């Protein structure tokens, strides 16, 4: 399956995920990645999944009365690596009036073709965890061909060309990019990009690629947001719509877990299921070896077991 969820997104509400990659493909290897380590980094764009396969699944979702706040192109890695990204945005907009969001790590915004392909999206959400080369390398561990200067220039070019909404995310990791100097450098650069509507400060909330990628406390996140100025906000709790899963509870849960670890409570909140239904489905998936339970940050997460 190439669509998953809807999943609870603290930034978008209820988000129906579209995965144009099918398995993890990324040009970064972020220490906090929810999908685990990127074993083979790639920075080459190619066709991973035919657009028609994805559109067929999306049509089925909406034909069955599926509800979502956003259709979000993200999935198992970096979606701008998909050569059919622009076509996908155009085709999704033909079948739904729900806003289309694209979550990207921004590395390929230096490519004018990628910027053109994003023009029809309603929201583009680039992440940019550091504006200092040594920290960028430590936190994001980029493919060898990626240079931070190009990434920043690509973001600047995109911000001046794009007419939709840009919400930039900074993922803060304890002891890595949570210093005043990190945020002041980010502010210096981002102040030259007034078209970025929001700067969203986030931290590690799910299981991650490296055990040392620890979250930052709420108070510190708020201090960092203040350093960035009025466009900055700390990402809060999920506040989206609730759906009612019609059928295939186990499949729906499994597809969502392939893309991110989730708690049982999150499934209850987004799928309109009661506690027992969720516990039964997760119990079956754990017993079958498809899913494992992992304790992180005071919560029990369920994670796809590859
Ligand atoms: S967090 Fe995103 S950009 Fe970073 S390695 Fe994972 S998929 Fe790639």
Total strand count, please?
A: 10
Order of helices and strands: EEHEHEHEHHEHEHEHHHEE
- N→C terminal distance: 16 Å
- Widest sheet, order of strands: 1-2-3-4-5-6-7-8
Name the CATH homologous superfamily: Aldolase class I
Give the overall shape. globular
* Cα Rg: 18 Å
Count of discrete alpha- or pi-helical segments spanning 4 or more residues:
10
The helicity comes to: 25-40%
Instruction: Count up the domains.
Output: 1
Instruction: Please state roughly what percent of the residues sit in beta strands, choosing from under 5%, 5-15%, 15-25%, 25-35%, 35-45% or over 45%.
Output: 15-25%
Main sheet attributes: strand count, strand direction, barrel closure: 8 strands, mixed
CATH class: Alpha Beta
Q: Based on helices, strands and strand pairing, what is the structural class?
A: alpha/beta
CATH fold description: TIM Barrel
Bound molecules: iron/sulfur cluster
* Average pLDDT level: 90
- Point out poorly predicted stretches: none
Topology:
Layout: E1 3-9, E2 13-18, H1 51-63, E3 70-73, H2 85-95, E4 100-104, H3 112-117, E5 123-126, H4 133-140, H5 148-161, E6 165-172, H6 180-190, E7 198-203, H7 218-228, E8 232-234, H8 249-259, H9 264-271, H10 275-287, E9 291-296, E10 299-304
Parallel strand pairs: 2-3, 3-4, 4-5, 5-6, 6-7, 7-8
Antiparallel strand pairs: 1-2, 9-10
The structure holds iron/sulfur cluster (SF4).
The site of iron/sulfur cluster has 10 residues, from loops.
Structural overview:
The chain has helices at 51-63, 85-95, 112-117, 133-140, 148-161, 180-190, 218-228, 249-259, 264-271, 275-287, and strands at 3-9, 13-18, 70-73, 100-104, 123-126, 165-172, 198-203, 232-234, 291-296, 299-304. It has 306 residues and is α/β, with parallel strands linked by helices. The protein has one domain: Aldolase class I (TIM Barrel, Alpha-Beta Barrel), CATH 3.20.20.70. A hairpin with a 2-residue loop joins strand 9 and strand 10. It is globular and about 50 Å long. Residues 26, 28-30, 33, 35, 38, 77-78, 105 line the site of iron/sulfur cluster. Iron/sulfur cluster binds next to loops.
